[in-house]
UniProtKB/TrEMBL annotation:
Pfam families: CoaE. NCBIfam families: dephospho-CoA kinase. The keyword Lipoprotein does not apply. It comes from Shewanella electrodiphila. Pathway: Cofactor biosynthesis; coenzyme A biosynthesis; CoA from (R)-pantothenate: step 5/5. This is Dephospho-CoA kinase.
Length: 201
């Protein structure tokens, strides 16, 4: 089991996955909250059956899987529904993430969590790493990637903690507007530092 956990986070569209994959190339195992969030609502899970009993069968697509777009539209502007869903899913995600960390074999683990600080999951990690880009770039990158309009992206950004607060909570920051080579160098330096810290953890 890896005793040392790095919590990697950043605003939407900041390039968390790209950075996480660079650590993965260095042999470090990733525990990705977004992937686990999908796993806890797969067919046959407690998560999905509770969502069905709350919203009814029409929350499913034609193949019997959760229709994420429908679910998103039900909770996006309804604080009460969003709270209900979070209360259901967060404990399930947290439990599965910790199990994945326990089974990891690399010297340390990167936990990729978009809402690391918002959901208090920084309490589970030894150190935090923030991937940072300016808000106007977040909007442009996400709108292009997801094929959505900038207003929708801005709404999502406003749901997350402010850039200033996120940076103030970070133990380390990667400026993802720098050239790729610079970013790779930073990852390499952080990797060496995390190996050192993990060996004494």
């Amino acid at each position: 089991m890896a005793n040392f956990i790095v919590g990697l986070t950043g605003g939407i569209g900041s390039g968390k996955t790209t950075i996480a994959n660079q650590f993965s190339e260095l042999g470090i195992e990733l525990v990705d909250a977004d992937i686990i969030a999908r796993e806890v609502v797969e067919q046959g899970t407690t998560g999905l059956s509770q969502i069905i009993s709350h919203y009814g069968m029409d929350i499913l697509d034609s193949s019997g899987k959760l229709d994420r777009t429908k679910l998103r539209s039900k909770v996006f502007d309804d604080e009460q529904e969003r709270q209900w869903l979070n209360n259901l899913l967060h404990p399930l995600i947290r439990k599965q993430m910790l199990a994945a960390v326990k089974n990891a074999n690399s010297p340390y683990v990167i936990m990729v969590v978009p809402l690391l600080f918002e959901n208090g999951l920084d309490s589970l990690v030894n150190t935090t790493l923030v991937v940072d880009i300016p808000p106007h770039e977040q909007v442009a990158r996400t709108a292009k990637r997801d094929g959505v309009n900038s207003t929708q992206v801005e709404k999502i950004i406003n749901r997350q903690i402010s850039r200033k607060l996120r940076l103030s909570k970070a133990d380390a920051v990667i400026d993802n507007t720098l050239p790729l080579e610079e970013v790779r160098k930073t990852v390499q330096l952080l990797h060496s530092s995390y190996l050192d810290q993990a060996s004494t953890a």
